[in-house]
Amino acid sequence: MCGMDLKTLSLFVAVMETGSISKAAQRENIAISAVSKRLAALEARLGSKLFQRQPEGLEPLPAAAVLLRNAHTVLRNLSQLQLEMAEFGEGVRGTVTIAASTAVAASYLPEELRAFSLLHPAITITVRDALSREAVQMATEGTADFSIFAEPYSAGALRTLPYKTEKLVAVLPAGHPLAACRLLRLSDMLPYDFVVGRPGSSLNTILSRAAAAAHLEIRSRIQVVGSETIARMVEAGHGVSILPASLARPRRSGGMVARPLREAWAARHLRLCFPQSEIMTKPAQLLVEHLSALNRTVDI
Hints:
single chain; alpha/beta; D-Maltodextrin-Binding Protein, domain 2; eight-stranded mixed sheet; two-stranded antiparallel ribbon; elongated
């Protein structure tokens, strides 16, 4: 990157992450004056100011955000290279960061990552919680090696592979009038109170668009965060909702029942998204290949 040294790049990242030169100096075990000198030299080399000096501290300018994104990529790739070369011939080593929703992580990843770890014990994995839109953004910016997102969201310029097709089902409190039906349509449910997820979530977006297409309104009784919380609220009798079949299986309490939905949109597609393979680390490529090979439809 313009001939700059990696130590200066690391110090710049530290300043951005801590918000001050003094905290960055403490974290990196270097003198404050040395950090200031390197930042000034970095700005001179780039020909662009990175920070606005304010009485209360440093205010990052737009150029700093661009440099930070690329610096993360350079430093992560260097770290990965060092790990792989240090253990050359002893199997693939390294770290992989995945961005995915809590529901996806809880429903599918435990067993699938265990199988992967048995094949590649030297690869460590971090799963970061994110809504679909946020997950795509993390893969785009490089803060995640790849992400799992749900349609109707798009991955933009990223590459994608199919991961799972989830059947969405109606979930009802036990004893609800609609529990006597074998199949349901959204129009059957809309006269009743709904438990809904947070704005921007894939399920909430699907539900809102389906209701709008039918020129109907959702009677939102209570809004919560997370599919598991939706299930618990339905179980407690707060309203009806729509969930992936994997989260709607019978519970010990018997307080919730699930019914198939007769709707074209009731098949929700989960996809993996990632940058071009030539800029992905080897561990990330292996994990993407492993998960995409497990592509299947999840039903009740």
